[in-house]
Write a structure and sequence with these properties.
The complex is a heterodimer. Chain A is an alpha+beta fold. Chain A folds into two domains: about 60-135, Immunoglobulin-like (Sandwich), CATH 2.60.40; about 145-395. Chain A has ten helices and eight strands. Chain A has helices at about 5-35, 145-170, 170-175, 180-210, 215-235, 245-270, 280-295, 305-330, 335-365, 375-395; strands spanning about 55-60, 65-70, 80-85, 90, 90-95, 105-110, 120-125, 130-135. In chain A, helix 2 (about 145-170) crosses helix 7, helix 4 (about 180-210) packs parallel to helix 10 (about 375-395) and helix 6 packs parallel to helix 8 (about 305-330). In chain B, strand 16 (about 310-315) and strand 17 form a beta hairpin. In chain B, helix 1 runs antiparallel to helix 2. Chain B has one domain (about 75-370): Cupredoxins -  blue copper proteins (Immunoglobulin-like, Sandwich). Chain B is built from nine helices and 21 strands. The chains are: A alpha+beta, B alpha+beta. The interface between A and B is large, with 49 and 52 residues.
Chain lengths: ~400, ~375
C-alpha cells in the first residue's frame, strides 16, 4: 500500500502534464495554420492600416522641441513630416525608422518656440494621416538640475509634509476629546478620505483617457484600484483588525499614495506649462491637506506613541508628494500618473473601510453609528471642508 | 490650471532660455536635417544635401522645410522636368490642309509620393500629377483620345471653345472604366488654359490629381499688328527659343481627407524648388504659364521676390492685362502668363511663393537660381 501510492501519484502528475500540454499544442497548431494558410486574406480590402499616435511627453529647451510619441497602429508606423503651427520643420527621430506597435520614439525639432505662447504640433505619417498635439503654454521644461529639484522639493514639502505635520500638531489638544468627540474626528477622517477617493478616481480616469490605447486606461485604473485595495486589506488584516498605530500607519500610507499620484499630476502639468504653481495655489493645496494630519492622529489619540512615530507618519503621508513632483515633471507620462492615482484610490478605500470598522467597534454599535449626530456631522465636515478648500486649487 | 503666479517661479532664467532657443534653432538645422535624410532613398539626394549643408540664402527659412527627398524615379515624373515638358501630340494634315493635332491620354489610379515620405492615392492623367501640359497652336484641329484605365468614371473637361457634346461633363464625354472617348474641337481661343476631370463628385476628382495645363499659342498670321509678340509665344519658333518658358500648376493635397490641405506645391512636390532651385540664365527673359487648381482654399497667389512682372490674365491677349506687379491672385481654374527678366539683376537665388504664408510654410515655395550665361 505504501509503495503503490507514489506510483499512482506520479502517473497522475504525468496525466496532468499531458492535459496541460494539450490545449497549448492545439493553440500552437491554430497559430501555425493561421500564419501559413492565411485564411483571413479575404478580409484584406485594400484599406490602409489603422494608425494611432499618442504624445506622451513634450520637452522644450534651448535646442527646440522634443516629443516622445508612442505608436499604436495595426502595423509599424512611419513619421514622414512634422508641422509646427502649420509649417513643416526639419526633425530627427530617435530611434529612426518605422515605430512598432507599442514602441516609443523621440522626435526632435530645432523650433524656436515662443515663451508663454501656444503651439500646435502635427505629425504626418507616410499614409498622410495626421496626429495633433497642443502645447497650451510654452515654458522651458524643468531640467534635473539641483536648483530645480530643490525648488520642486520645496513645493512638495509645502503641499505634502507641512499640512500633515500641522494636522498632527493638534494631537495634544485632541487627546482630551470625549467619546462623541472621538466619533466626530474619526468620521471627519472618513469624510475627507471619501472626498479623496472620488477625486483621485476621477482624476485617474481622466488621465487614463489621455494615455495610449495599448494601456487600456480605464480598465487599468479600475483593476489597479481594486488590486491595491484587496492587497492592503489582506496585509492589514493579517494580524487581526488594525487599530491604533497600525491603523494610523495605513491612513498615512493611503494618503501618501494619493499624494504621490497628486504630485505626479501636478509635476506633469507644471512641466507641460499648463499649471502655474503660484503662491496662492501652493497655499491652497497646503490648506486642503491639513485635515489629513488630523485624520492620521485620530486612531492614536488614546495611546502615547513615541515622538519619532509622528515624524515617520508625516514622512509616509507627505513625503511621496515630493517624489511625485520630481517624477511627474521629469519623467512621467499620463498612464503612470493614472496608475499611481488608481493605486492611491485603492489604498484610500482600504483605510475608509478600516476606519469605519474601528468607529463601529469603538461605539459598540453596528452600522447605526453612522446615523448618530457626531458621526454625520464629522462626515459632512470632512467632505465639506475638502470640497470647499479644493475650490482654491481647481482651475 | 491658471498661470497667475507662474512668472515668479520661472523668472528671468527661463526668459533667457527662450531667447537662446530662438537663436539656436537656426544654427542647428543643417546637421539635424542630414541625420534624417539618410533614412530616405530618393533620386536627388546629392542636390538636396548640397543645398542643405551650406548656409546659403535658401536657409533664410532656417529649419522650416520638409525632411528628406521624393523619389522622382519611382513616381515616374519629376517636378523640375515637368516645368518644360510640353506634350505637343502628333501632327497630321487634314484633307482641307488644316493641321490635326492628336493627343493620347489615359486615366490611371496611382499611388504617388507627393512630399518626402508621404504616399497619396492619386487619380492621374498619363500616370502623372499634374497631367501632361498640352500645347497646340491657335486654329488647329485637336483630337484627344482618352482611355479610362482607372477604377471610376472620368472625363476631360477642357477650358476652351467647343460643342456641348465635347464638354466632358456627365452625359457628354464621360468615360466609364475600360471605355474610350475622343474629344474633338478647334484650338481656340489662344491663351493659357487648363483641363480637368468633370466627373462627380467634382471636388474629389480634381483634388485627387485630375488636372493639367492646356496652352494654345497665338497664330502670328492672325495677329499681323502684334506679329513679333505672337511669334515669341509660338512654341518652336526662333523667337520663342529666346525665352525660358516654364509651366507651373499650383496644386495641393489633403492627405487625411479632412477638407484641408496638408501639402501645397507647384507641380505636386512640396519644397521641390527650395531643395533644387530652378536655373535661370540671367540674360534670357522668363515666361511662366501659371495655373491654379487648388481645392478647399478659395484663392492662391504668386509673388516674385526682388523683381516685377507683366501679367496676361488667362493669356488671351498679346498685351499685358497687368503691368509691373510682383503679386497676382488666382481662384481655382484661374490662370495667366507671367513675363519678367533678371537681365539687370546680380546672379543669386530669388524666391517665389504665394503670399498666403500658410501655403508657403506648407511646401509651396521655391527659388530661381539666376546665373550668368554659360560661356
Amino acid at each position: 500500500m505504501n509503495e503503490t501510492l507514489p506510483r499512482t501519484a506520479i502517473r497522475a502528475a504525468r496525466t496532468n502534464l499531458v492535459w496541460l500540454a494539450l490545449p497549448l499544442i492545439a493553440f500552437a497548431v491554430a497559430v501555425v495554420w493561421l500564419v501559413t494558410t492565411d485564411p483571413l486574406s479575404g478580409f484584406r480590402n485594400g484599406a490602409p492600416p489603422v494608425e494611432n499616435l499618442t504624445f506622451e511627453r513634450t520637452v522644450l529647451d534651448d535646442s527646440g522641441l522634443r516629443l516622445l510619441v508612442r505608436a499604436g497602429g495595426s502595423e509599424p508606423m512611419t513619421v514622414a513630416q512634422v508641422q509646427v503651427d502649420d509649417a513643416y520643420w526639419q526633425f530627427t527621430q530617435d530611434p529612426p525608422g518605422p515605430i512598432a506597435r507599442g514602441r516609443t520614439a523621440w522626435l526632435a525639432l530645432p523650433f524656436p518656440w515662443m515663451l508663454g505662447e501656444a503651439h500646435a504640433l502635427k505629425v504626418v505619417t507616410n499614409t498622410g494621416t495626421t496626429f495633433t498635439h497642443e502645447i497650451a503654454v510654452a515654458v522651458p521644461t524643468p531640467q534635473a538640475t539641483a536648483g530645480q529639484l530643490r525648488l520642486q522639493a520645496l513645493v512638495g514639502l509645502i503641499v505634502g509634509i507641512v499640512p500633515v505635520a500641522v494636522g498632527l500638531m493638534f494631537y495634544p489638544v485632541l487627546r482630551g476629546v470625549g467619546r462623541s468627540g472621538m466619533a466626530f474626528l474619526l468620521s471627519l477622517t472618513i469624510g475627507l478620505l471619501a472626498f479623496l477617493l472620488v477625486d483621485a478616481s476621477a482624476e485617474a480616469l481622466e488621465l487614463a483617457s489621455e494615455a495610449a490605447a495599448i494601456f487600456q486606461g480605464p480598465v487599468m485604473v479600475v483593476l489597479a484600484g481594486i488590486g491595491s485595495f484587496l492587497l492592503l486589506m489582506a496585509v492589514g488584516r493579517r494580524g487581526g483588525v488594525p487599530t491604533g498605530l497600525a491603523l494610523a500607519t495605513y491612513i498615512a500610507l493611503g494618503i501618501g499614495l494619493h499624494n504621490l499620484g497628486e504630485g505626479l499630476a501636478i509635476g506633469a502639468a507644471f512641466a507641460a506649462g499648463s499649471a502655474g504653481l503660484g503662491t496662492f495655489l501652493v497655499l491652497g493645496f497646503a490648506l486642503h491637506n491639513v485635515t489629513e494630519g488630523i485624520g492620521i492622529a485620530a486612531p492614536i489619540l488614546k495611546q502615547r506613541p513615541p515622538l519619532w512615530t509622528f515624524v515617520g507618519l508625516t514622512l509616509l503621508a507627505g513625503g511621496p508628494a515630493v517624489l511625485g513632483m520630481w517624477l511627474g515633471s521629469l519623467a512621467a507620462s499620463a498612464q503612470w500618473s493614472a496608475l499611481a492615482l488608481a493605486v492611491g484610490a485603492g489604498a484610500i478605500l482600504q483605510v475608509i473601510v478600516e476606519v469605519g470598522a474601528y468607529l463601529m467597534r469603538q461605539s459598540g454599535k453596528r452600522l447605526e453609528v453612522f446615523l448618530t449626530p457626531p458621526v454625520m456631522g464629522g462626515l459632512a465636515a470632512g467632505v465639506g471642508f475638502m470640497y470647499l478648500t479644493a475650490a482654491l486649487v481647481k482651475i | 490650471m491658471g498661470k497667475s503666479g507662474k512668472q515668479d517661479m520661472l523668472g528671468r532664467r527661463s526668459l533667457l532660455m527662450g531667447g537662446l532657443a530662438a537663436a539656436g534653432g537656426t544654427a542647428i538645422c543643417a546637421g539635424a536635417a542630414l541625420a534624417q535624410q539618410a533614412s530616405h532613398g530618393g533620386g536627388h539626394r546629392m542636390a538636396a544635401s548640397d543645398a542643405m549643408a551650406a548656409p546659403m540664402p535658401s536657409m533664410g527659412h532656417g529649419a522650416m522645410i520638409t525632411v528628406g527627398d521624393v523619389d522622382s524615379a519611382a513616381n515616374g515624373f519629376d517636378p523640375t522636368d515637368m516645368l518644360t515638358d510640353w506634350d505637343t501630340g502628333t501632327v497630321t494634315t487634314l484633307p482641307d490642309g488644316r493641321t490635326l493635332r492628336t493627343f493620347e491620354m489615359t486615366a490611371e489610379d496611382r499611388e504617388i509620393e507627393i512630399a518626402p515620405g508621404i504616399r497619396f492615392p492619386a487619380w492621374t492623367y498619363n500616370g502623372r500629377v499634374p497631367g501632361p501640359a498640352l500645347r497646340a497652336k491657335e486654329g488647329e484641329r485637336l483630337k484627344i483620345v482618352f482611355r479610362n484605365y482607372a477604377s471610376h468614371p472620368h472625363s476631360i473637361h477642357f477650358h476652351g471653345i467647343h460643342a456641348a457634346r465635347m464638354d466632358g461633363v456627365p452625359g457628354a464625354g464621360m468615360v466609364d472604366p475600360g471605355d474610350e472617348f475622343v474629344y474633338e474641337f478647334d484650338a481656340k481661343p489662344f491663351g493659357c488654359h487648363l483641363y480637368h476631370c468633370h466627373a462627380m463628385p467634382l471636388r474629389r476628382h480634381i483634388h485627387k490629381g485630375m488636372y493639367g495645363a492646356f496652352v494654345i499659342d497665338p497664330d502670328p498670321e492672325r495677329h499681323p499688328d502684334q506679329i513679333d509678340v505672337a511669334r515669341s509665344r509660338l512654341f518652336g519658333t526662333p523667337e520663342n527659343a529666346g525665352w525660358q518658358e516654364l509651366v507651373m500648376v499650383m496644386n495641393a493635397f489633403d492627405t487625411n481627407f479632412d477638407a484641408e490641405n496638408e501639402f501645397y506645391a507647384v507641380n505636386t512636390v512640396a519644397h521641390a524648388f527650395m531643395k533644387r532651385p530652378i536655373r535661370i540664365v540671367k540674360e534670357k527673359p522668363v515666361r511662366i504659364y501659371l495655373v491654379n487648381v487648388i481645392e478647399f482654399d478659395p484663392i492662391n497667389s504668386f509673388h516674385l521676390h526682388a523683381n516685377f512682372f507683366d501679367y496676361y490674365e488667362q493669356g488671351t491677349t498679346l498685351t499685358p492685362t497687368l503691368k509691373t506687379v510682383d503679386l497676382i491672385t488666382q481662384c481655382q481654374a484661374q490662370r495667366g502668363i507671367l513675363e519678367f527678366t533678371f537681365a539687370e539683376h546680380e546672379p543669386g537665388l530669388y524666391m517665389f511663393h504665394p503670399h498666403q504664408t500658410e501655403f508657403t510654410e506648407l511646401g509651396w515655395v521655391g527659388m530661381f537660381d539666376v546665373v550668368e550665361a554659360l560661356a
